[in-house]
Amino acid sequence: MARKRFRSTQRNEPVTDRSFQEYLYQTAAPLTTRTELMRLVRGGEDTYLELKVKLSNPERIAQGIVALANTGGGTIVFGVNDQMRVEGIDHPEEVQDELVRICREDIIPPLIPFIDRVAFDNGRRIVALDVQGKRRPYRTRDGRFFIRVGENKRETSPEELSTLLDDARPLLYEDIPVTQSTISDIDEAHLWTFMRAFEGAAFEESTVKDYPTSEILERYLMLGVKSQDDIAPTVAGMLLFGKDESVTKLLPRTSIIATRFGGDNVKAPIIERVELQGNLATLYEAALRFVNRYCDLWDTRPARSTSEADNSPVVARANYHRAVICEGVANALIHRDLVVRDVTTRLHIFDRAVEVVNPRRSAGFAPQALKSIRFGVQQRLNPRTVAVFASPAYGLHLVSGGLPMLLRQARAFSNRLPEIVSFNDEFRLRIHGV
Questions:
Q1: Burial level of 114, CB count in 10 A (0-12/13-18/19+)?
Q2: Rounded to an integer, what distance in angstroms lies between the CA atom of residue 305 and that of residue 319?
Q3: In 68-151, where do the E strands start and end?
Q4: Residue 14 falls inside a structural domain
Q5: Residue pair 390/180 in contact by the 8 Å Cβ criterion
Q6: Structural domain ending residue among the three candidates 195, 217, 245
Q7: pLDDT mean for each 10 residues of the chain (434 residues)
Q8: How far is CA 131 from CA 111, 138, 156, 173, 203, in A?
Q9: Sign of the four-CA dihedral 291, 292, 296, 301
């Protein structure tokens, strides 16, 4: 039987961004005993063990580490030949440093190496590298994927790579069934209006009988999951087609807090604050009504205000590009990170700006992804929700162009570029008015 692990205790990976060197040299961790290591070596090479006399070719070592990581983990022992004889290595510290560099620079995503140096009574020393593949699939710096089969490594076939990618794909929050929900929580009128938009193409109403909402939700749209004898709508299904009262009850964190401030920041007096609730269509329309209550939306920049208006003791209503506000609200609704529990979507109306605050895990999102979304390269958290919400069949009058359009039109309208920041698990979009 293959030996996948040889440690009797488990090390904990560092949770901070400190360097690999600091972790290796300052973190106390149980070392592998000579007896434990030799018991492993005497069994010879297999799927989870590779023996090396020395570290002479970093590129091939990187390939071997990638192969082990993609196969589920294993160990590479340096200083032992193919006949399982301990020859030792001359400079184990240098080998350790080179292994750290390889795991950090030559493997994508980087690996945190667990390295042990073992000394024998005759003075010979060996180095054992424990590979744990927790973020598969891994690849080399030149973009090659490897797996290990028995004693050998080889590049993955397209089918094997597809399997690795499928295994690595996490379950999205939007695909989780909503606890205590049933088909009775679905607005069937809205759902079937959506389906009839595809009549004559993807959908033939004549082939279905008695309006099988459960079947449509589960088999056609993949927005439902079997739960005992019933179908439970997923989070995406409830957000898109749930009855307003059911969404409010079962998914209370999906509401929007809309506030009109009597100034230019959140410390200004509150003129009105309401909680908008319901499914995504209801939220979208309610949010736009709230904005229209305090702002003027235009398709083109309005004529310059008169001096009489400028000298008025009452602050004039700010003007905004209609498509920009619509895109900002839609973007907030479909790209919310519902995993973040303590951040609610907020819509702030100031005297001269509109701000949308959305929950979004900051780790891994900024600053690289924050730059890429300006070019339309988005990291969609809710792809199924986005696809249905953006479809004309869903019934909303949306704008096209995404964030690049928003930035371009907002700047042309107000001569100021919207501000986009991400911190403390919040994504903030601030649009300036005129």
A1: buried
A2: 11
A3: 74-78, 107-108, 114-119, 125-131, 139-140, 146-149
A4: no
A5: no
A6: 245
A7: 43 44 44 68 85 91 94 90 87 92 92 86 87 86 90 88 73 87 94 92 82 90 84 95 96 95 94 97 98 95 62 76 97 91 93 94 69 78 93 94 94 94 91 94
A8: 8, 12, 19, 30, 50
A9: positive
Q: Beta strand 49-52 with 74-78: parallel, antiparallel or unpaired?
A: parallel
Token duo for residue 17? 């961004």
pTM here is 0.67
CB 23 within 8 A of CB 16: no
Looking at residue 157, the DSSP 8-state letter turns out to be P
Q: Give per-residue pLDDT as tens, 84-136.
A: 888 899 899 999 999 999 999 999 889 888 888 888 878 889 999 999 887 88
Virtual torsion, Cα 322, 324, 325, 327, nearest 10 deg: 120
Sequence letter at residue 120: F
CB contact set of 263 (below 8 Å; sequence gap of 6+): 269, 350, 351
CB 196 within 8 A of CB 205: yes
Alpha-carbon span 181 to 192, nearest angstrom? 19
CA distances from 144 to 67, 105, 106, 382 (A): 10, 14, 11, 29
Encoded tokens for 345: 């979507």
Cα-based distances in Å from 229 to 182, 226, 234, 246, 342: 11, 7, 16, 20, 34
- DSSP run (H or E) holding 284: helix 280-294
DSSP code per residue over 52-73: ES----HHHHHHHHHHHHHHT-
Identify the residue whose tokens are 């004309």: 392
Contact 364, 197 (CB under 8 A): no
Q: What angle do CA 402, 408, 411 make, to 5 degrees?
A: 135
Residue 5 included in any domain: no
C-alpha gyration radius of the chain: 29
Question: Do the beta carbons of residue 46 and residue 138 sit within 8 Å?
Answer: no
Neighbours of 190 (CB within 10 A): 18
Query: Could you tell me if residue 279 is inside a domain?
Result: yes
Per the CB < 8 A criterion, the answer to whether 431 and 327 are in contact is no
Residue 134: closest CA among 102, 156, 112, 158: 112
Distance CA 327, CA 291 (A): 13
Domain boundary among 219, 245, 271: 245
* DSSP single-letter state for residue 318: P
**Which residue's structure tokens are 């009109």?**
260
In a domain, 8, yes or no: no
User: Distance (Å, rounded) from C-alpha 237 to C-alpha 223?
Assistant: 5
Domain residue limits at 128:
20-168
